[in-house]
Write a structure and sequence with these properties.
mainly beta, 118 residues, four-stranded antiparallel β-sheet
């Protein structure tokens, strides 16, 4: 079974930066989009950023201008550079991958905690 393995979460002061990484445990040839969701305590999971195999990116309004997604769907890797972090960015961040033809993610990472101190 394919796993998405994440790394890079942690504790940072407000205004600081973190870089999240995600890679598949083996190559998935059918992937056409990867990205990141996050879930804060007591809130629903929300899409943070995504990138397609064609390189198109999409961001939540709350992170535009601060976060940058990059990666290579063919290599099943995705990164999230997070700058100017705020306390409201505190959440568990989940990497995902989506097969071609699907509307919803069908591969998930285990989640990595991001904590921002004010």
């Amino acid at each position: 079974q394919v796993q998405l393995v994440e790394s890079g979460g942690g504790l940072v002061q407000a205004g600081g930066s973190l870089r999240l990484s995600c890679a598949a445990s083996r190559t998935i040839f059918s992937i056409n989009a990867m990205g990141w969701y996050r879930q804060a305590p007591g809130k629903q999971r929300e899409l943070v950023a995504s990138i397609t195999s064609g390189g198109s990116t999409n961001y939540a309004d709350s992170v535009k201008g601060r976060f940058t997604i990059s990666g290579d769907n063919a290599k099943n890797t995705v990164f999230l550079q997070m700058n100017s972090l705020k306390p409201e960015d505190i959440a568990v961040y989940y990497c995902y991958a989506r097969d071609s033809g699907r509307y919803c993610p069908n591969y998930w990472g285990q989640g990595t905690q991001v904590t921002v101190s004010s």
